[in-house]
Specification:
Elements: H1 15-58
């Protein structure tokens, strides 16, 4: 088990770790976008509900 040494010296990033970093950032960005889209959809749904109610009450 003594094979895995956990040392932190920053030699130049190899392709794999750079890729991992990029994909993690992309996942984080996608989650943020999903949250924003969900909020936008919720707002649109609420607005549509209000419009429908207004249309029924006014009309």
């Amino acid at each position: 088990m003594g094979e895995h040494h956990h040392t932190h010296h920053h030699h130049k990033e190899d392709g794999a770790s750079r890729f991992k970093h990029k994909s993690l950032a992309a996942i984080r960005k996608r989650k943020q976008m999903a949250k924003i889209l969900k909020m936008a959809l919720l707002v649109i749904a609420v607005l549509m509900g209000i419009v429908v109610l207004l249309a029924y009450t006014v009309g």
